[in-house]
Amino acid sequence: MTTGRFAPSPTGRLHVGNLRTALLAWLFARSEGGQFLVRMEDLDRVQSSTAHETDQLADLAALGLDWDGPVVRQSERFDLYHQAVVDLSERGLTYLCYCTRREIQEAASAPHGDPRPDGAYPGTCRDLGRRDRADHEAAGRPPAIRLRAQVAELPVPDLMLGEVTAVVDDVVLVRNDGTPAYNLAVVVDDAAQGVDQVVRGDDLASSTPRQAHLADLLGLPRPEWAHVPLVLGPGGRRLAKRDGAVTLPELAALGVTATDVLTVLAQSLKLALPGEAVTPSLLLERFEPSLVPGVPWVLDPAAGVTL
Ligand code: GLU
Questions:
Q1: What angle do CA 70, 72, 73 make, to 5 degrees?
Q2: 18 CA: nearest ligand 1 atom
Q3: Whether this model's pTM surpasses 0.85
């Protein structure tokens, strides 16, 4: 049975773009009679809060989306991520990296620097000598742990995009403050939770080859991926909170109900006529993955979310 998921970071209210991605992930999974899980990606302990988590779950429920089992929180699963790093380290597939963010940027933009695309890590600490390492340690620089990637690039199949080929660099597995990194946690969690279908925004498409490689090295099954177009705001930028009324409470204050929002989302997915009242189960009957629009949906909240 298919198991899909929605994995928001509980750092604020979900906006219309997040809700559309959640609806799509739900439709993909449920239309195959599959399970649908919600996982809170709360590794960022400063931005995340249980209050945001409660709000986000309320937003999903308001649209009529349901999920199976308890909501999982990444902040409670550090042991799992740690085990994966130990496994990789024991096989010589990790190394300590002392670079600061600025040093990485400078290395990438230096005239004779390694011109790696996509902000990829240039490999500065990959083969650090014992003396350099001792210098960094003596200077009190805390190290991050990076993957020693075994490929430079990888093509991965994608239900929406056909195939995604992107750089696989030595991704950070554990940040220099000891926090597990997103790419590690997402790979470990999807496998541990039996997720075999990942539907998410296409801003994450270029991270997918990295995640596929990490799954391969950990001996974990790869899920199937479907990267769906983002919702864009005015000017073609990714929709953001600054664009106006984009969350359910903000829209409610303008008299736009959650049911209205479901209609608009469904309409944007060609699953409803303008103004037609719909329910998630009606949308399930109409949903066909191959008919999901492959282009971004542009919304101008300042002009009023036209319902
Ligand atoms: N937590 C990520 C986000 O909110 C999504 C990660 C994923 O779906 O793999 O953007």
A1: 145
A2: 4
A3: yes
How many Å apart are CA 165 and CA 182, to the nearest integer? 20
The yes-or-no answer on residue 270 being catalytic is: no
Q: Residue 117's pLDDT is what?
A: 64
| Cα of 258 vs its chain's centroid, Å | 24
User: How would you classify the pairing of strands 72-73 and 35-40?
Assistant: parallel
- The residue count for the chain: 307
Reported as a pLDDT band with limits 50, 70 and 90, residue 303 is low
Q: Decide whether any atom of ligand 1 lies within 6 Å of the 9 Cβ.
A: yes
Contact 292, 24 (CB under 8 A): yes
Residue of 158, 204, 239 to mutate, ligand 1, most atoms within 8 A of C-beta: 204
pLDDT digits (tens, 9 = 90+) for 113-155: 555 666 789 999 999 999 999 999 999 999 999 999 999 999 9
Q: Structural domains in the chain?
A: 3-76+229-303 (3.40.50.620), 79-182 (3.90.800.10)
- Secondary structure (3-state) at 264: helix
Centre of ligand 1 to C-alpha 9, Å, is: 7
Average pLDDT, the chain: 94
Q: How far apart are CA 231 and CA 212, in angstroms?
A: 25
